[in-house]
Amino acid sequence: MEIFALGEGSYSVDSTKKFIPFNPETDNFKDRPGSLFIHVNPFLIKTTHDLIVLDTGLGFKDTRDELLLHQNIRNAGFDPDDVTLVLMSHLHYDHSGGLVVERNGKLEPSFPQARHVIQKGEWEFGMAGKSSSYHKEIFEALQGVDITFVEGSGELISGIRYELSGGHCPNHQVFWIDIEGTKVLFGGDELPEPEQLIRKFIAKYDMDGRKAMQLRQEYGKLASEEGWTCLFYHSKSFAIGNVSSDDGGEHFTVTPA
């Protein structure tokens, strides 16, 4: 198994939920008062049988009008058309924007040949258009794409499990991938940064902050005890890490994998 972090850079997000590129070397935090600053890392996993994308970034393009996600996949040595699975933790815009690409004024699926795996309740909520965190036009553009709507927790294929976790949003899911001797945990926005394992806190951006905090502790303990490599979607430091603990899971150390 090969694992790649497809970093899309840093962004500020204000009360309008607009994502604006932010370069820490040239931009000043003080110029964007009231903003949340995040980093975005979709992931790519290559196995013997599949090329897997885990969450799809913001859907932004580079200066050549190329989808950043597509270019990053090429930079990793693969062709976007060869992606076979797209696994979605949830459908908030910063995770689902790259599901589509704009061409000639029209949104088209970014991975038209791939199987997409989405919690049914998450899709239905996103399509209802009741929250600005979801962009309904993205989902409408996926008509005709192969989508597997899962419910609850279960096994997708041999070696890939999905777990309905529901801490960050009601239908959030995490993925456990155990293939070819490597164990990978993708915790989406319930395990977005390595720092969130190092210190316990309740995040305001989680639907159920206490549950999300408890889930992080459970994920950290399992990762430490069973050797799961963790993928941190919003990490500013390192996006792929190993977890260790010497006190039964009360405190964790996270190091780059």
Q: Can you summarize this structure?
A:
This protein has 257 residues and is an alpha+beta fold. It has six helices and 18 strands.
* Count of separate DSSP helical elements: 6
Provide the spatial order of strands within the biggest beta sheet.
12-13-14-15-16-17-18
Reading off the top of the CATH hierarchy, the class is best stated as Alpha Beta
Largest sheet: 7 strands, mixed
Could you tell me the CATH topology label.
Metallo-beta-lactamase, Chain A
Coarse structural class: alpha+beta
**How big is the Rg?**
17 Å
- Tell me the count of domains: 1
Overall pLDDT level: 94
Tell me which CATH architecture applies here. 4-Layer Sandwich
Structure report:
With 257 residues, the chain is α+β, with helices and mostly antiparallel strands. The chain has one domain: 4-Layer Sandwich (Metallo-beta-lactamase, Chain A), CATH 3.60.15. The chain has six helices and 18 strands. It has a seven-stranded mixed sheet with strand order 12-13-14-15-16-17-18. A hairpin with a 2-residue loop joins strand 12 and strand 13. The two termini are 13 Å apart. The mean pLDDT is 94.
Layout: helices, strands, pairs:
Blueprint: E1 2-5, E2 10-13, E3 19-21, E4 36-39, E5 43-46, E6 51-54, H1 68-75, E7 85-87, H2 93-96, E8 100-103, E9 106-109, E10 115-119, H3 120-128, H4 136-140, E11 146-150, E12 154-157, E13 160-164, E14 173-179, E15 182-186, H5 195-198, H6 209-226, E16 229-231, E17 240-244, E18 253-256
Parallel strand pairs: 6-7, 7-10, 10-11, 15-16
Antiparallel strand pairs: 1-5, 2-3, 2-4, 5-6, 8-9, 12-13, 13-14, 14-15, 16-17, 17-18
